[in-house]
Write a structure and sequence with these properties.
Elements (H helix, E strand, L loop, with lengths): L15 H18 L2 E2 L5 E3 H7 L5 H6 L2 E3 L5 E4 L4 H10 L9 E10 L11 E10 L4 H17 L5 E7 L6 H12 L8 H9 L10 H8 L10 H16 L5 E2 L11 E9 L9 E5 L3 H4 L7 E7 H10 L12 E5 L2 H16 L4 E3 L6 H11 L3 E5 L1 H6 L2 E5 L5 E4 L1 H10 L2
Parallel strand pairs: 1-5, 7-8, 12-13, 12-14
Antiparallel strand pairs: 2-4, 3-4, 5-6, 6-11, 7-9, 9-10, 10-11, 14-15, 15-16
Bound molecules: histidyl-adenosine monophosphate.
The site of histidyl-adenosine monophosphate has 28 residues, from strand 6, strand 10, strand 11 and helix 11.
């Protein structure tokens, strides 16, 4: 017996209303903020992610699905969506359009992580990227948008975690302070963090191991080492958020797991669930496009995991709209009746009415049980008598009343929703 690969999941029909609900709210949010949809390939040149997400990150080092195709190209299943959106922005000359260019996507994302609740090897993201504008007003708008998206879903009890990790100019100063602080703690740090000290000291701040977390709490804060420009950017952003009435928690340990970020980083954290349960996250990435060969282009975006949203909708008992039940069930008995049943189903569907049709193999009682289970309003029963008379026996499944009806009448009745 084959099973879905570890860390992947089937989304069965009964789960679909959650996904549809999220997609509709996402589409409406994007309409309000002026984002246009983009689809990019599920796999890209592996170098695209190595250069942008970063060679020193877990995502590229440990989690990326890399493979060679039959022409020896080294490809990777996308481990995130931002680099692809930026690659497309460059490839299609979107820098010639009025800036910023605002793109959104729904994308399946692949990361070889240790599966657990809300953590998959294939997950799905709704993501937005605003490319081409350096203003902190855009940061505030993207944060407002992500927060309003979650609110529009009915979700409550989440916090906005905020930090600034500076730029190429001021980050080295902070990194030096971090190394000075962490180096003497060497043996008290986990093996991964000891390696990070050399490769990627910022990452020490978001280690999930309790010993490292305690040490990170007291570590030098990036916001204390910002250059004047980054400091002014962060202050402006905070004042816009205050003006918008958006509460935030300054979290100096928030550094995010991707190397392309500059200045603003943020995460939306549900009140319940640990630090690995973020509903969404994002930030500014002013250097990403230069990292992948383009000209300097400021940008900011965010993405949210659809599976995490579904989990939170369920844990907060948020009811989502269910699809309408079919209106009519057609039951039939006998060979001639089958022909009429096939014709009636076609006429009703042509008239826009949703129909379930029985193949007439079972007893009438069994067919009506199916009609009941399907939650239809009407069962149209066709037996030998109805075939002869050119009629159907219409049964109202709620009241149990039956009456002989012409097919046209049924079309009108079911169409009117009565
Ligand atoms: P990220 O924080 O790695 O950011 O992922 C975004 C969101 O995807 C997370 O907040 C979480 O909800 C969900 N997620 C991540 N990994 C998993 C997983 N293994 N299973 C289920 N859900 C997961 C990015 O990917 C950036 N590209 C976001 C961004 C857009 N930054 C700027 N623009």
């Amino acid at each position: 017996m084959f099973k879905a690969p570890r860390g992947t999941a089937d989304t069965l029909p009964e789960e679909q209303p959650y996904w549809r609900y999220i997609e509709e709210k996402a589409l409406e949010t994007c309409r309000l903020y002026g984002y246009g949809r983009i689809n990019t390939p599920a796999f890209e040149d592996a170098g695209l992610f190595a250069r942008s997400v970063g060679e020193g990150t877990d995502i590229v080092n440990k989690e990326m699905y890399v493979f060679k195709d039959r022409s020896d190209n080294e490809l990777a299943l996308r481990p995130e969506g931002t680099a692809s959106a930026c690659r497309a922005y460059m490839e299609h000359g979107m820098d010639n359009l009025p800036q910023p260019v605002k793109l959104f996507y729904f994308a399946d994302i692949f990361r070889y992580e240790r599966p657990q609740a809300g953590r998959y090897r294939q997950h799905h993201q709704f993501g937005c990227e605003s490319i081409g504008d350096p203003s902190p007003m855009v940061d505030a708008e993207v944060i407002h948008m992500s927060r309003n998206f979650f609110l529009s879903l009915g979700l409550r009890n989440f916090s906005l975690q905020l930090n600034s990790i500076g730029c190429q100019n001021c980050r080295p100063g902070h990194l030096k302070k971090l190394i000075d602080y962490f180096a003497p703690l060497g043996p008290r740090l986990c093996g991964d963090c000891q390696a990070r000290l050399e490769r990627n000291p910022l990452r020490l701040l978001d280690c999930k191991k309790p010993g490292c977390q305690a040490a990170a709490e007291e570590a030098p804060k990036s916001a204390d080492y910002l250059c004047d420009e980054c400091g002014a950017h962060f202050e402006s952003l905070k004042s816009y958020l205050q003006a918008l009435g958006i509460g935030f928690v300054l979290n100096h340990r928030l550094v995010r797991g991707l190397d392309y970020y500059t200045r603003t980083v943020f995460e939306i954290q549900p009140a319940e669930g640990g630090s690995q349960s973020a509903l969404g996250g994002g930030g500014r990435y002013d250097d990403l496009i230069t990292m992948i060969g383009g000209k300097p282009t400021p940008a900011i975006g965010f993405a949210s995991g659809m599976e995490r949203i579904v989990l939170n909708l369920k844990s907060q008992c948020i009811a989502v709209p269910q699809p309408a039940k079919p209106a009519v069930f057609i039951a039939c008995m006998g060979g001639d009746a089958r022909v009429e049943a096939v014709k009636l189903a076609a006429v009703l569907r042509d008239g826009g009415i949703a129909v379930i049709s029985s193949s007439g193999e079972r007893s009438l009682k069994a067919q009506l049980r199916l009609a009941n289970a399907a939650g239809v309003k009407y069962a149209a029963i066709i037996g030998e008598d109805e075939v002869k008379a050119g009629t159907v026996m219409l049964r109202n499944m709620e009241t149990g009343e039956q009456q002989e009806t012409q097919p046209d009448e049924l079309l009108k009745l079911a169409g009117s929703g009565q």
